[in-house]
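Pasting as-is:
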Amino acid sequence: MAEAPSYYAIIPANVRYDQNLPGKAILLYGEITALCNQKGYCWASNDYFAKLYGVNSKSIQRWIKNLEDQGYISREVFYKKGTKEIERRNIRLNTTPHLKNEVTPHLKNEADNTTSINKNHSEAEPKEDSIHYKKIINFLNEKAGRDFKDVEGNRKLIRARIHDGYSEHDFALVIDFKCKQWLNDEKMEKYLRPGTLFGSSKKFDQYLDEAKQNRKQQAPTTEPQGLSVGEGSARAANYLAELEKQYEGD
């Protein structure tokens, strides 16, 4: 079996207790969050996961489809130039920490293969009507105690960062971290606004990196709406073992 990654994973309660998911699809979701915590998206192939869990790639493909059908992840496919052959696939999380447990399932994609697929990269780009503007803005209002509106000016900033490759998960991390950092600071709390948080790709990337570093430092003692899994953690090992036993044969 491949060497297990050392970074932590998060399995939110709504995923852990989703009766529509096979147990090992739940474990796979945790692995995907671990890779997303490292780079913001999961780049690993089906073969990588198959070696990691000691199963065949068709099992991984089925679990990924289970997660996608339930709206927890979405796939982004890139092709070799001038061909329909897949060069790589990225997986992004659709759910966001702290936001209300409200998942909007995305359109179901056909299974990945190495030669062709029914959509091209331009169709995989986030469409404007699939971006949860109001959800992001309401989360900022809730955390910062503000009343920003779901207007085009704010949507434009969010849309720009989404098209830069950031996810709604990333917005939640930035909002949560900067609110904790600035809310009680008289000089800085006025900057808890869309223009400051989302207005610059460079600044947004800086804030996101700070948020992720902070979560890594806090991971051993805090568990933000889910199970934080640290390498060598007895509790995490026991939890994963219980899930595997419970869903043996899925």
